[in-house]
Amino acid sequence: MAKITIDKVCCKGCDICLSVCPKKIFVRSKKRNNYGTNMPDAQNADECVVCRMCERMCPDGAINVEGEIKENEA
Amino acid sequence: MNKLYEKYIKTDSLPTLFCPGCGNGIIQMAAINAIENLGIKQDVACVSGIGCSAWIPCYLKLDVMHTLHGRAIAFAEGLKFARPDKKVIVFTGDGDCLAIGGNHLIHAARRNIDLTVIMVNNYIYGMTGGQKSPATPKGSMTKTSPFGSVDEVIDGCELVMAMGASYVARWTTAHPVQMEKAIRDGVSHNGFSFIEVLAQCPVQAGKNVYGEKDAASIMRNFKNNTYIYKEGVEIPKEKIRVGTLKHNKNAKEYIDKVEWVMTARELERR
After folding, report:
1. Domains and their CATH numbers in chain B
2. What is the ipTM of this complex?
3. What is the mean pLDDT of each run of 10 residues along chain B (270 residues)?
4. CATH architecture of A3-66
């Protein structure tokens, strides 16, 4: 299981992470970041496959993903 | 905060001045990833001009020079001559590189000097409030062309390819992995490398230029409107071609040529 953290200081609430995540882990929330906009919330972190697309696509480097790539559980 | 971001960014100057949804941050992250994967943090020097995109290297913990408007490539050439051991990366925008610095760009490409130029093309002058730039598409409404732009568009990649640059690639912010690979290839290539990155500017360009004002939908449009170029593949006319457009490994580099001439002269004197 991956551990996803979103930094309140860096996030600006552009909602790019919502569209790039293949597993739709990020959802809109009512939490406010320091910039004054709504920041996303990482809800279904168990489903994360650690593709690290959100890390690459976040323009402000707010997202950090810790975890190993999941093996095939078949 | 991202681990890699913490390692490379001056955290005391955060938050960055980029607007929410700006593409510059994605390019910054790709450049950080490329430098980390090559392991050349100590050997990199960055040069930038004026504009939003010129702020990309200013947050990095590297040797950075923030120079005059349009003259970033001229300063970088001087730096490369003085310190040929450094890998010089230049960050410029479309207005910085094609309008006011167009002369420096074509002459650096003509010389084939070992620089890596990353041109952030967001189709507009973002920092000064949304004026028309040479890369603005025909018919788009901006502050200085309220009835639609009528000028022909300058294609930066075609221009430097005609002038003899030896590595030319174009990617968008919707292709971050490929962009990182292009930056890695450009830095390790010995010769003039030009990487054009199509970026979104949701605040100043927004609906009038891209047809969308949301950063995520502009990036989805980038992905739908582009076509990955490979040699011998026909590309539909309405699509923008992305990919490695030119990679000539045999082209001679300028500093090598100068050194060759100097040694020939020395031998002649004896």
Report:
1. 21-269 (3.40.50.970)
2. 0.89
3. 85 84 90 90 91 89 90 92 91 89 90 91 88 88 88 89 90 91 91 91 84 86 86 80 88 89 91
4. 2-Layer Sandwich (3.30)
